[in-house]
Design a protein that fits this description.
With 329 residues, the chain is mainly alpha-helical. 56% of the residues lie in helices and 7% in strands. The protein is built from 14 helices and 5 strands. A 3-stranded parallel β-sheet has the order 1-2-3, sandwiched between helices. α1 links the parallel β1 and β2. α4 crosses α8. It is globular, with a radius of gyration of 21 Å. The protein starts with a strand and ends in a 5-residue tail after the last helix. 39% of the residues are buried. It binds adenosine monophosphate. Adenosine monophosphate binds next to α1. The site of adenosine monophosphate has 17 residues, from α1.
C-alpha cells in the first residue's frame, strides 16, 4: 500500500482553507493508503508561540482532525514533536540545502517582507523540515493546497539530492495530491488572495452560525455588473469560488446566471453562501465540542499515533544513518 503524509500547523483552529485544501483529502485517502497525518508543532515555533498556546492549539487541531472524520484506527495521527527522528533527518537534509535556493522560496520572501524583525533560520529552512516530515515515512503522495506547491518541489529536490550524493535510489520523489484535477485554493472574502489565519480572513469550522453569517455578509463585493457576461473582478471571483466549493452546482449556476444577466443581488448570494457554509460546519462543530471534552480519548489517540509514527520513522533513520556512514545500532 502506498504511503501518504501531510500535516497542519497548530496556529489556530481549522478553517475552510485548510479543510478543503488538505483535510478533506485526508479523510478520503485514509481508506486507500497507509496514511500519516501529523500536527506540525515544530513548524509553528517560527512565530515563537507561548507554551500554553502550543498545548492548547495542538489539542484543538487533534480534536478537529477527529471531528472531521480522520479515524485513528485507519490513519496514524501524531504530533510532530513526538517523533524526534524527524529532527535528525531535518539536520541531515539541511547539510545539503543551500542558502540561495532557500532564500528564493516565495513563502520565505513573503515572511521577510511581512515580519522583517523575525526572519529566523526556522523560516528559512521550513522546506527542509517539510521534506523530512514527508520522506521520513517514504511517502509518495502528499495532500496539500496550492500554496504548498513550491515547498513540494523543494521536497522532491532534497529527496533526489540525497540519492545523488550517496549514490543510492533510497528516497522516492513525493507528489502533491489533490482530490480534483486542480490544486485547491480557498479564497478569502476580503477581496484578497487565500483564506488563512495569518491573513485574518478565515472562516473556522468551529465558528457558530451567527459568526459565520456575519463573516460572509461582510464579504467584499461591488455595485454589480452593468454589461451582460462581464468579467468578474477578483473579490467577486472569490465569492463565486467559495460558493463553488461549499454549495451545490445548481446553486452556483443560479447565481452565475444572475451575474451574467446583470440581475445579481449580492445580499441574496451571501445569505445562501452563509447557509451552505453553516450546513457544512454545524455537524462538525458539534463533534469538535464533544471530542474536545474527552481528554482521555485524545491522549490515547496521540500516544498510539506517536508509537506508530516513531516505528516507521526509526526504521528510515536506521537506514539513513547507515547510508551516511554513521554506525547503525
Ligand atoms: P497551514 O494551515 O498553513 O498549516 O496549511 C495546512 C494545509 O492546508 C496545507 O496543505 C495548505 O496547502 C492547506 N491550506 C491552507 N490554507 C489554504 C487555502 N486557503 N486554500 C487551500 N489550501 C489551504
Amino acid at each position: 500500500m502506498e504511503t501518504v503524509v501531510s500535516g497542519i500547523r497548530p496556529t489556530g483552529n481549522l478553517h475552510l482553507g485548510n479543510y478543503f485544501g488538505a483535510v478533506k483529502s485526508f479523510v478520503k485517502m485514509q481508506n486507500e493508503y497507509n496514511c500519516y497525518f501529523f500536527i506540525a508543532d515544530w513548524h509553528s515555533l517560527t512565530t515563537h508561540p507561548h507554551p500554553e498556546n502550543i498545548r492548547r492549539s495542538v489539542k484543538t487541531i487533534l480534536a478537529e482532525y477527529l471531528a472531521c472524520g480522520i479515524d485513528p484506527e485507519k490513519a496514524t495521527i501524531y504530533i510532530q514533536s513526538d517523533v524526534r527522528e524527524v529532527a535528525e533527518l531535518y539536520l541531515y537534509l539541511n547539510m545539503n540545502a543551500y542558502l540561495g535556493e532557500l532564500e528564493r522560496v516565495t513563502s520565505f520572501k513573503d515572511k521577510v517582507r511581512s515580519q522583517p524583525n523575525n526572519v529566523n533560520a526556522g523560516l528559512l529552512t521550513y522546506p527542509s523540515l517539510m521534506a523530512a516530515d514527508i520522506i521520513i515515512h517514504k511517502a509518495v503522495k502528499v495532500p496539500v493546497g496550492k500554496d504548498q506547491e513550491q515547498n513540494m518541489e523543494m521536497a522532491r529536490k532534497f529527496a533526489r539530492r540525497f540519492n545523488t550524493i550517496y549514490g543510492i535510489e533510497y528516497f522516492s520523489e513525493p507528489a502533491s495530491f489533490h482530490l480534483s484535477e486542480k490544486a485547491v485554493k480557498v479564497p478569502g472574502l476580503d477581496g484578497s488572495g487565500k483564506m488563512g489565519k495569518s491573513e485574518g480572513n478565515a472562516i473556522y469550522l468551529v465558528d457558530d452560525e451567527k459568526t459565520i453569517r456575519k463573516k460572509v455578509m461582510k464579504a467584499v463585493t461591488d455595485s454589480g455588473p452593468t454589461e451582460p457576461n462581464s468579467e468578474k473582478p477578483e473579490a467577486i471571483i472569490n465569492l463565486f469560488s467559495l460558493m463553488d466549493i461549499v454549495s451545490t452546482p445548481d446553486t452556483y449556476a443560479y447565481f452565475n446566471d444572475k451575474y451574467n444577466s446583470c440581475e445579481i443581488c449580492y445580499g441574496d448570494m451571501k445569505k445562501q453562501l452563509a447557509e451552505d457554509i453553516n450546513a457544512f460546519c454545524t455537524p462538525i462543530r458539534e463533534r469538535i465540542l464533544e471530542i474536545a471534552a474527552d481528554e482521555a480519548y485524545m491522549e490515547k489517540v496521540a500516544r498510539m499515533g506517536a508509537e506508530k509514527a516513531t516505528e516507521s520513522a526509526a526504521k528510515t533513520l536506521r537506514e539513513v544513518r547507515e547510508i551516511i556512514g554513521f554506525k547503525a545500532y
